[in-house]
Specification:
6 strands; mainly alpha; two-stranded antiparallel ribbon; two-stranded antiparallel sheet
């Protein structure tokens, strides 16, 4: 402010709003009006989530004014390279996302239509994403965090979820064109014996998917064999890993894109899926079917053109593959008998496109209970988290905050206790 850097002020306010919206979506009520005061108030009280949302809508408006000021320049901008138009689109999109998430508690059709007219993130060139690099050092790890965790000497640390892989591999009767870009198989060995603890046991949704995909059911905690160099892991998109071309070298030796992936905060395909949902449920601008098709094609374009130098042309998805996929989904949409079934198709496709961004998938599920075919927890599940508990460090150091249950809902979630 002292230097009059209005561009940076505007960007900082957009990032502040995104952060606070995410905090509310994650924890519900959080400190805001008394927060960030240091020793002046070391025990800030929580504010209601809806009040924070309302405040952030104002903060975003302030950001737009700042960025639109004549002398607003933003050198070294890591997101948009100082492009004011793209930052304004991001600001509008964040407001649109907020209104879309609040549709269960009010009619925001007019506000959403105004934002659509003002301009939202509409193409890959506008995508709000953070770009990682291939730099790895003890003082400056700049690779995608999931790459750093899974592409090292001991192989993959995470398991892929069987249901999610199945959704791309088998569910439609043909492979999703994004399959080889999303997931990487690091062995030609079929899992069995100690490497397949679920083998021969009942109660599993998927024990082994076949085709060398080593995955795990949601909730399966039945021992962890030393299979870090065998289990399937993240692929090329979005972490900058390896493209799956049936060659199976371990990520410990095959570095793929070197971790130069992205964190996809808000992509054009996400925006179009939200527009399709909004058009179908509250009648905002646009045809939901057309928006669904545009969203799928945007997702395909993003994934299939991601670090193209790493893609083996012999296994690359083609435009025909994409057309066939779109035709299949739209045929399902056309024969759906009601808007609930149509919405489920939209949300399932949005869910598949969200690889790399679990925040929005969780938001979508709490708002819509969709996709409605999620497989059950194979163990003894606890309560589904409608929000998360406060971190222990917060509760233990702030006398104004009391711990809460994960069944406490965020203010915009008016759905039944049992999501279904």
């Amino acid at each position: 402010e002292e230097r009059g850097l209005q561009g940076y002020i505007g960007v900082a306010k957009i990032i502040k709003a995104y952060t606070y919206v995410t905090l509310v979506d994650t924890f519900g009520d959080v400190p805001y009006s008394e927060a960030l005061l240091g020793n002046e108030n070391p025990n800030p009280k929580v504010d209601q989530g809806q009040a924070i949302y309302n405040a952030m809508l104002g903060v975003i408006d302030e950001a737009i004014v700042a960025i639109n000021s004549p002398n607003a320049v933003m050198p070294n901008d890591l997101f948009y390279g100082g492009n004011k138009t793209k930052w304004i689109k991001m600001a509008n999109t964040l407001k649109f996302k907020m209104y879309a998430q609040m549709r269960l508690i009010g009619n925001f059709k007019t506000e959403i239509n105004t934002l659509i007219s003002s301009g939202l993130i509409n193409s890959a060139a506008d995508d709000f994403q953070f770009q990682y690099s291939t730099v790895a050092s003890s003082t400056g790890e700049s690779r995608h965090p999931s790459y750093a965790l899974n592409y090292d000497a001991d192989g993959a640390d995470d398991y892929l979820c069987s249901y999610y892989v199945y959704s791309l591999k088998d569910e439609k009767g043909f492979p999703d064109p994004r399959l080889r870009y999303y997931f990487y198989r690091q062995t030609s060995e079929v899992p069995t014996g100690d490497n397949l603890p679920c083998e021969g046991k009942s109660g599993y949704n998927f024990c082994y998917l076949g085709d060398l995909y080593w995955t795990r059911d949601h909730g399966d905690d039945d021992g962890v064999p030393p299979d870090g160099l065998k289990r399937s892991t993240y692929g090329l998109y979005p972490i900058g890993g390896a493209f799956d071309a049936d060659k199976f070298p371990s990520p410990a030796t095959t570095k793929g894109g070197g971790g130069a992936g992205i964190f996809p905060f808000m992509l054009s395909c996400y925006v179009k899926f939200l527009q399709a949902e909004s058009a179908l449920t509250i009648g905002t601008t646009g045809n939901p079917r057309s928006l669904l098709e545009a969203a799928i094609r945007d997702s395909m374009g993003k994934v299939l053109n991601f670090i193209p130098a790493q893609v083996d042309a012999a296994f690359a998805a083609t435009s025909t593959d994409v057309d066939n996929y779109v035709t299949y989904v739209l045929n399902k949409y056309d024969i759906a008998s009601n808007n609930k079934d149509r919405l489920d198709i939209i949300m399932k496709e949005y869910y598949i496109a969200l690889w790399g961004n679990g925040i929005e998938a969780w938001n979508n599920y709490r708002r819509t209970s969709m996709p409605n075919d999620l497989t059950s927890h194979v163990g003894t599940p606890g309560d589904f988290p409608r929000t998360f508990m406060y971190p222990a460090t917060v509760v233990n150091t702030n006398s104004s905050i009391q711990q809460k249950s994960i069944t406490v809902k965020v203010f915009w979630d008016t759905n039944p206790d049992n999501l279904q």
